[in-house]
Amino acid sequence: MRLDVAVQAEPELCVVGERLSAGGQVLLETALRDPRRPFVQAAWYTGGTESVTRASMPHDRLGTALLPLRVAGRTDGERRVIAAAEQMVVALRSVFACDPRPDRMRAAVPVNSGRLLPGCDNLAEVLWRTGAECAIRHGLLTAAVREGCAGPVTDVRADRIADGRLRAVLDRGDGLLTHFGRLGDGELRYAGLALVLLTGPGVLTVDRPGEVPDALQTLTVLADGFDRALDPAQRARLLELAVRMCERGHIRLLGAVSDASWAEGAAGVTVVHLKP
């Protein structure tokens, strides 16, 4: 399945064009005909006496997600459209947009659901949970953080403070601790992205598709500014971790960077240059 979307950002955010296709067959096509009106003209494949059905759809929603509500499924063509739309929606649901915010990661947090937010605001809460649930993944995270943070690191965990909240800390060994409030932006972004790559949908605030067996579920991580605030060594190690985790087949990473020269030629990495 292939979905192409054109988005207008100004004067208001809206979808101005959309095309869903499979095997070279266009199943849905929309276009904004009149910018003054809040809807797009849509046409979807039917395969019956009329090759397409035309109707209007709101321009502030993805038409593909609305198709199962609009298409009756009376013909083979319509049933193909519904199947394609449902598969695309499942794929889009399995996406986690991650942009660690160091200014929010330094503070202590209360205990809630234990699922990581896109800005990694509650990283301490997730460390409290993962440290108890999976010793193997926690060990991998500690090893990754050790490579991306200055000084020795024997453990990365969350400790309770007097008011019951949780604070993320680095255990330096011999009883020495460094709480995350003292780490630099690059170290915090590195730790947040490493945690995302080493965990899964059950630990992230993502809508898991229950209709897909766990063994077949794939998570796509979107990281805008993937290398922001990272030094060359940190970004290289994070890229190695991403490639290693993606090779297992249950996670994909789509990262946007301003200069991709440092990633070109790396095994397991595809660089796409976008021109204005």
Sequence stretches where pLDDT stays below 50 over 5 or more residues: none
CATH topological fold name of the largest domain: Rossmann fold
CATH top level class name of the largest domain: Alpha Beta
**Distance between the first and last residues' Cα:** 26 Å
Structural class: alpha+beta
Order of helices and strands: EEEEEHHEHHHEEEHEHE
**Strands side by side in the biggest sheet:** 1-2-3-4-5
Summarize the structure.
This protein has 276 residues and is α+β, with helices and mostly antiparallel strands. 30% of the residues lie in helices and 25% in strands.
Write up what this structure looks like:
The chain is an alpha+beta fold and 276 residues long. It folds into 2 domains: 2-93, no CATH class; 96-256, Rossmann fold. It contains 7 helices and 11 strands. Strands 1-2-3-4-5 form a 5-stranded antiparallel beta sheet, with helices on one face. Helix 7 links the parallel strand 10 (219-224) and strand 11 (251-256). It is elongated, with a radius of gyration of 22 Å.
Keywords, separated by commas or semicolons:
five-stranded antiparallel β-sheet, alpha+beta, 276 residues, single chain, three-stranded parallel β-sheet, Rossmann fold, 2 domains, 7 helices, elongated
